[in-house]
Amino acid sequence: MDAINGSESFEEIPYADIKSFFDSAPALGDAAETKIKEELEKFIKRNYSPSENGTTRRVVCVTSGGTTVPLEQRCVRYIDNFSSGHRGAASTEYFLKAGYAVVFLYRKGTCQPYCRSLPDDPLLECFEVTSESNITGTLLKLPFTTIFEYLQLLQLLALSMRSLGPNAMFYLAAAVSDFYVPWESMAVHKIQSASGPLDIRLAQVPKMLPVLRKDWAPMAFCISFKLETDTKILLEKANMALKKYNMHMVVANELKTRKEEVIVVTKSGNITIRRDMTQAGADVEEPLVKLIVDRHSAYIGSQS
Ligand code: 9Z3
Questions:
Q1: Which of 134, 156, 225, 275 ranks highest by number of CB atoms within 10 Å?
Q2: In CATH, which of 3.30.310.50, 3.30.70.100, 3.30.70.260, 3.40.50.10300 is domain 15-227?
Q3: What's an example Gene Ontology biological process for this entry (predicted)?
Q4: CA of 303 to the centre of ligand 1 (A)
Q5: Ligand 1 within 6 A of CB of 213
């Protein structure tokens, strides 16, 4: 089997579950969807189309922060997935430095590129960008909150980036909910405490990674992250994700040590990346992004 491309057959993709997830998800809205599509098209054209400015940049979609699962349609309460967004924000800076154009798909209110060391001060929230998206020359920021928004945006993005072939990359550092309350079975109004203890049944979020690889952007270079708190199962789970979802690389990390060390799992072996403890301010993202950029170059070379 080809070590980089991976010519294994995909596991059975749950198309029916995926369709019902998207069909029942609250829509982003026609206006918002059109605006995002236009921005993406402009961004990709500006950075990728050589006729625009003479240079062709690779484009990476970095996802960052955790998704929420609302418990009520008029949401007062929700379940959250842990992620400060530090990994995504830091990695975005290094991808930009390496010459990539970055679409930063991030959870509202989490860590932003070039603002990583700002203190965690609620006052700073007042200065948060309030527009739906935020675009500069080589950085396009798109915010999400819920699992519904995140997956719809990821699909939109993947379909827009499909035309870039192997020059597109997905770096999926966001912490994505595994379980959710389907919209149609969700309480409309605030759940009342007078009714006694609350029983909630959560459905499984259908796995979108195999469909991203197979249908949405089949030529893109795809890196997913695997987070565990039990080190004993971390590598086994990361290996499973690599094979089951046909990822090019899976970055395995443990919650407690995630800022010190990650293990990059590939079909040709594992690579441990550690933060350089002798260097003040060094992080694990710099060597991680360097390795990934090198592997992406090899991948592009193998496709041409
Ligand atoms: C990660 O594993 C990220 O590295 C962290 C980064 C969320 C731990 P921080 O944002 O932390 O710097 O505070 N992200 C992926 C987590 C995830 O939900 N992975 C899924 C899984 O493990 C697969 S897509 O099942």
A1: 225
A2: 3.40.50.10300
A3: coenzyme A biosynthetic process
A4: 29
A5: no
